[in-house]
C-alpha cells in the first residue's frame, strides 16, 4: 500500500443542470481526522454526508473543504427591495449626518440592513434537490481523489527519506558494534590502567576489590543490548515501510524507541568514539522522527 503524507491540496469542478459546482479541499497534519466544512447558505444539509465522505477515505489529518455553487442566471431568484423602508432609512441617515456630523450612508451599507433587501428562496422539487446533492457529493469524491493522489505523491518522497534514515541508523549501529573500544583486550587494558592509577594514588586500596568494581562498571557500560535492540528496530522499520498504509503512529512509536536506545548508548559509553557515534545516531533519529510527523 502507498504511504500518504498528511498535507495536500486539490480542486474539482463539475456542472449539473446549469449549476456550477466547485470544491477546494486541503489537509494538514493532525492526530485524527478532523473536518471543517465551508458550505454556502442553504446547503448546510450536506454537512453530515460530506463529513462522512472525508472520514471514510482518510485515517489522519485536519481537513478543510470549501464548496462554491453558482446557479445559472435563470435559476437565481431576483432580489426584492423594500423601497419604502429604504427611503425611511436614507432619510434618517441624512438627518443624522446634518445634526451630528456622522459619515454619510452608503448604498451597500443601507442594502445590507435587515429588512431592506430580500432574496427569496428558489422553489425546487425534492427530486431536483436530491439530484443536485448527489452531483455535489460526487464532485467532492473527485476532489478527495485528487487530494489523496497529492498526499501519496508526498508520501512516496517521505518513504525514500525515511528509508535513508533507517539505513543511516543501521550503519551507525554497526559502527558502534565494531568499534575497537569494545574489544575484550581493550576493555581489560582499560580496567587494568584504571586500577593502576587508583593504586598509585593510594596504597591503602584493596587491589582485588578494585578489580571487581572495575569489572562491574565495565559490565554496566556494555552496549550489547542497545545494539541488538537497534538492529531489531531497524528491521521493524523496514517492514512497516514496505507494507505501507496508515503507519504514521507506528513509525512515531518506533522513532521514540530509536531515541531511547541512542540516549542509553551515549550514557553507557565509556569510549569517546562510541559516544560520538551515539550523538550522530541521535541526530539521525531526530530527523527520522521529524519526517514521521508528516505521515498519515
UniProtKB/TrEMBL annotation:
Family, similarity comment: Belongs to the YicC/YloC family.
PANTHER family linked to this entry: UPF0701 PROTEIN YICC
Alphabetized UniProt keyword annotations: Endonuclease, Hydrolase, Nuclease
Cofactors (names): a divalent metal cation
GO MF assignments: hydrolase activity; RNA endonuclease activity
Domain Endoribonuclease YicC-like C-terminal: 185-296
Record's protein name: YicC family protein
Lineage of source species: Bacteria, Pseudomonadati, Pseudomonadota, Alphaproteobacteria, Hyphomicrobiales
Residue span(s) of domain Endoribonuclease YicC-like N-terminal: 3-159
Amino acid at each position: 500500500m502507498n504511504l500518504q503524507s498528511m498535507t495536500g491540496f486539490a480542486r474539482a469542478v463539475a456542472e449539473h443542470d446549469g449549476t456550477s459546482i466547485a470544491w477546494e479541499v486541503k489537509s494538514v497534519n493532525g492526530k485524527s481526522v478532523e473536518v471543517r466544512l465551508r458550505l454556502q447558505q442553504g446547503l448546510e444539509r450536506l454537512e453530515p454526508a460530506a463529513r462522512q465522505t472525508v472520514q471514510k477515505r482518510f485515517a489522519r489529518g485536519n481537513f478543510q473543504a470549501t464548496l462554491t455553487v453558482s446557479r445559472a442566471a435563470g435559476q437565481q431568484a431576483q432580489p426584492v427591495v423594500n423601497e419604502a423602508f429604504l427611503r425611511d432609512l436614507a432619510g434618517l441617515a441624512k438627518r443624522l449626518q446634518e445634526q451630528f456630523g456622522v459619515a454619510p450612508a452608503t448604498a451597500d451599507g443601507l442594502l445590507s440592513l435587515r429588512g431592506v433587501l430580500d432574496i427569496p428562496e428558489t422553489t425546487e422539487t425534492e427530486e431536483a434537490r436530491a439530484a443536485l446533492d448527489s452531483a455535489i457529493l460526487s464532485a467532492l469524491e473527485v476532489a478527495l481523489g485528487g487530494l489523496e493522489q497529492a498526499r501519496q505523491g508526498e508520501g512516496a518522497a517521505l518513504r525514500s527519506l525515511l528509508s535513508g534514515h533507517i539505513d543511516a541508523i543501521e550503519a551507525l549501529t554497526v559502527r558502534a558494534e565494531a568499534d575497537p573500544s569494545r574489544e575484550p583486550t581493550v576493555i581489560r587494558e582499560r580496567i587494568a590502567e584504571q586500577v593502576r592509577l587508583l593504586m598509585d594514588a593510594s596504597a591503602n586500596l584493596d587491589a582485588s576489590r578494585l578489580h571487581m568494581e572495575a569489572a562491574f562498571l565495565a559490565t554496566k557500560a556494555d552496549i550489547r543490548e542497545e545494539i541488538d535492540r537497534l538492529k531489531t528496530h531497524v528491521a521493524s522499520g523496514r517492514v512497516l515501510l514496505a507494507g505501507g498504509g496508515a503507519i504514521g503512529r507506528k513509525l512515531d512509536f518506533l522513532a521514540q524507541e530509536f531515541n531511547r536506545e541512542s540516549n542509553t548508548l551515549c550514557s553507557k559509553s565509556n569510549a569517546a568514539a562510541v559516544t560520538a557515534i551515539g550523538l550522530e545516531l541521535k541526530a539521525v533519529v531526530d530527523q527520522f522522527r521529524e519526517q514521521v510527523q508528516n505521515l498519515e
